[in-house]
Amino acid sequence: xxxxxxxxxxxxxxxxxxxxxxxxxxxxxxxxxxxxxxxxxxxxxxxxxxxxxxxxxxxxxxxxxxxxxxxxxxxxxxxxxxxxxxxxxxxxxxxxxxxxxxxxxxxxxxxxxxxxxxxxxxxxxxxxxxxxxxxxxxxxxxxxxxxxxxxxxxxxxxxxxxxxxxxxxxxxxxxxxxxxxxxxxxxxxxxxxxxxxxxxxxxxxxxxxxxxxxxxxxxxxxxxxxxxxxxxxxxxxxxxxxxxxxxxxxxxxxxxxxxxxxxxxxxxxxxxxxxxxxxxxxxxxxxxxxxxxxxxxxxxxxxxxx
Length: 306
Ligand SMILES: Nc1ncnc2c1ncn2[C@@H]1O[C@H](COP(=O)(O)OP(=O)(O)OP(=O)(O)O)[C@@H](O)[C@H]1O
Ligand SMILES: [Mg+2]
Prior knowledge:
There is one protein chain. The strands form 3 sheets. The chain has a 5-stranded antiparallel β-sheet. It has 10 helices and 12 strands. Strand 11 (246-254) and strand 12 form a beta hairpin. The longest helix is centred in the N-terminal third of the chain and has 18 residues, at 16-33. Helix 1 packs across helix 10 (291-301). The chain folds into 3 domains: 4-87, Rossmann fold (3-Layer(aba) Sandwich); 97-114 and 177-301, D-amino Acid Aminotransferase, Chain A, domain 1 (2-Layer Sandwich); 117-174. The protein has helices at residues 16-33, 46-56, 74-82, 91-98, 100-109, 122-126, 205-209, 224-240, 279-286, 291-301; strands spanning 4-10, 36-42, 60-63, 117-121, 135-139, 149-151, 169-174, 179-186, 189-198, 214-217, 246-254, 262-269. Bound molecules: adenosine-5'-triphosphate and magnesium ion.
């Protein structure tokens, strides 16, 4: 059945460009599927957004925003209040997942291994009071590796707390050597795990969105027991964090002492990227689902409440 589908895109987080890139693919897919697509560029002007939604009266909203306000429960709250079915996680799932501290705690309770870590003020981290290298500094609620700093040893430059654009409170985690594994979950079921081998030091913004900056290996060529475990943990994380629709959970796999090694959970993305280099489309493609079929799945899965 053909639907009127509003695509929320852009937004005003640090991931605006990523969202616009994801939305470009989604809009093309909607056209291919024969739906009526209504692109809506989300700005700070909420009145305009509400007006747009009231004028167009979409059957469904595809929420293709990334980062703060679009992925953390804020916009989901508005859509709940307007009673418009929307894709991906609801208010609670979005809020729980986008707070890396809360997500870590919930996942640990569910029996998922997390790297040793703690919440600290950036100034204390930089003064060397929190952890000895190697460690990782991360903003608590950002995405696309924005603000992520890998401090491998004493010679690695630290961020300047005076020029830090994120909240002063950060997550500091032990650096986990080894490999980068990510899992796509659709409707509570893990679809597959991919390995990413960035050419640089880590899977940073550039490696995520510039062609040729990382190798993708699908399915992840890891020990079969670990492959099974990473799928199971991604499903547990999706469920434990009250996610809905599509999510992607990210892991580190330390095999530096041989396989099977030790798996660590990093985080869950309740609105994973849908750009040409994004991983969820690549993982589902390996299982025979095209990008357009993924978009159709999201249109059908959209709902209100939870
Ligand atoms: N504890 C860690 N040990 C080793 N590498 C890490 C660790 N934490 C993060 N990284 C590296 O930094 C990258 C980004 O971290 P993380 O996934 O937590 O941030 P993000 O900004 O929310 O990413 P996105 O939303 O794009 O998935 C990871 O993919 C990994 O390469
Ligand atoms: Mg990540």
